[in-house]
Every structure is written in C-alpha cells, then in structure tokens.
Amino acid sequence: MKVGNQYIIPFKGLTAGEHIFDFEVDKKFFEEYSELEISNGLINIGVILNRKSSFMTLDFVFNGWVELKCDKCLELFKYSLKFKGQLIVKFKEIPEEPDEDVIYLHPNEDLLDLNQYMFDNIALNIPIQKYHPVDNDGKSQCESGMLKIINAHSYKESLNKKNSIDPRWSKLKDLLKDGNKN
Q1: What is the tens place of the pLDDT at every residue in 8-52?
Q2: Distance, CA of 57 to CA of 76 (rounded, Å)
Q3: What gap in Å lies between CA 146 and CA 157, rounded to an integer?
Q4: Residues 104, 110, 115, 118: is their CA dihedral positive or negative?
Q5: Which residues, in sequence order, are CB contacts of 98 under 8 Å at separation 6+?
Q6: Do the Cβ atoms of 14 and 101 come closer than 8 Å?
Q7: Which of 8, 14, 104, 111 could bridge across to 95 with cysteines, CB 3.0–4.6 Å?
C-alpha cells in the first residue's frame, strides 16, 4: 500500500500566521522507501507552518524510533530518532536551484508534498555504523552468542593464543638462523 497523499499539506486556503500539523511515519512509509533499510518504526512529526504572503517557513520536530539491523551481530534493535529542522518554501514563476533548506514552488501551486523531506531527514539521522546501544554498565547489548563467535575469530584473540606464530612462517625463522652462520 502506497503512503500516497498522507504527507501533503494543502496550504492554498490557509490564512497568514501559524498552523500546526501532526504526521506519523510508520511501517507503511518504510516499506515504500526500502532503500532506508529500516524494517519498522514509529516517528511522530510535528510541523508548525508559518504562512506569509510570499513564502512559508515550516519548523519540524521528529521524535520516535526506527528498527535497524546491528552491523555487528545482525540482530534488530530500536534506535531512538530525534531531529529538529526548518524548511523554507518560496514562491517563484521560475524556480531557482533548490538547496537543502529551501524549496521553490510555482505561485499557482496549492499543495506541499513532504514525503521527500521526511525521507531525506530520516535517512540523514541514521548512523553510518549501526550498533546496539550499550547498557548502563557500558556493555554492548548485541546477541551474546554472535559476540562469542566474533571474538573467537578476531585478530586480538589470535594474538592472545599461546602459539601466536603461524606455523607457515616458522620455516622462515630457520632461514634467518642459517643466514647468520655465513
């Protein structure tokens, strides 16, 4: 099911001044935008639209969580997402090149679609490296069985083993000994 016009503000009939809108981004949104690699989530988005004669400002507050896959143990976890931002909408016959906080609409437009803005800001607020949060003791909440496997195959663990010299290299040490005799 498409999210459709669920995140569109019909601003043409709005009077000058502040108007408040509330949106909810949920699993349906993340299913449509699968490139986010988010399987589930619930984000409440509050918008204060301040309408002027030649432009509008929109102040956003994102507050909620998304379900991410941990890069270390591959288990899902809830990641808290909070964000505040502002978008400026200007009306022009010939739009200029948009930047990250300003968009241009034709003066005859009467709808403002926020889908792309919501997608962009959710994507930008997801960390590049996604790990389980640590508990109050500073320990990772990753799945313990997977952590044992990872630690058993880590470079540090192999150095800590009693026989830290790879047997394939031991013959080279013999060459060094023979070379010193000459």
Answers
A1: 999 888 899 999 999 999 999 988 888 888 889 999 999 999 999
A2: 36
A3: 15
A4: positive
A5: 104
A6: no
A7: 104
